[in-house]
Amino acid sequence: MPELPEVEALREFLGGELTGHEIVxxxxxxxxxxxxxxxxxxxxxxxxxxxxxxxxxxLAVEADGLWLVTxxxxxxxxxxxxxxxxxxxxxxxxxxxxxxxxxxxAGFDLTEAGTQKRLAVYVTDAPAxxxxxxxxxxxxxxxxxxxxxxxxxxxAEGRQLKGALRDQSLIAGIxxxxxxxxxxxxxxxxxxxxxxxxAEETSRLYAALRATLTEAVAxxxxxxAARLKAEKKSGLRVHGRTGEPCPVCGDTIRExxxxxxxxxxxxxxxxxxxxxxxxxTSRFLK
Length: 286
Fold this sequence. Notes:
By secondary structure, the chain is of the alpha+beta class.
């Protein structure tokens, strides 16, 4: 799933490629991807792109006051093409969901792999009014996201850190992968309760959060969209690396599986050498 660093890199990339160019065609290939119908996507045609913004994991392209907003969800992606293939794409069983074409002949496709179609596209004149954006918590890379603000947010959360970090209404942009990475860098169990952190632990978590996301954004800086997935994977230390040695201590990275996701952690670095039980009804290590 694209998370804050990848969406921020896409924002930067598209800002350079789209700004100042006219949108000549917006072609929905999978009708289910459209979550708004007024204004229609055709209202974007003939408008000039004036900027690209990010709201958490949402990517927003502005064209003369109207916005094309997308959430890539778990299996969505953006593919830049210069030039775009000739001819209109045909609806079918392939991954293509929507195509945006510029007057230059270049443009991008929004694609989604798998059978669970969660990729979402909106056309609006007010992105902040979209329910998914309106409910977002603060951006963790914003200048006003201080250690005190993180402490205030977590103090009211009587749940485990892993879930708290992934909650978009609490903190925007962090998903399954980077929550694993942040907790590993902070040397904390995924199942430690958020409202039970000491001042030292909060400071450690804040430093790990900011460093992990800042470093990931820096690694993705300047990369074309096609290279971002590989860059993300190569930069992860524990997430997706079950069975591999921890790069910090050499212990074997372990996994806890859930119905629709999994987490990875290092027992030595994070849980005092103890393994977390791998079943949903377990009494988890604190």
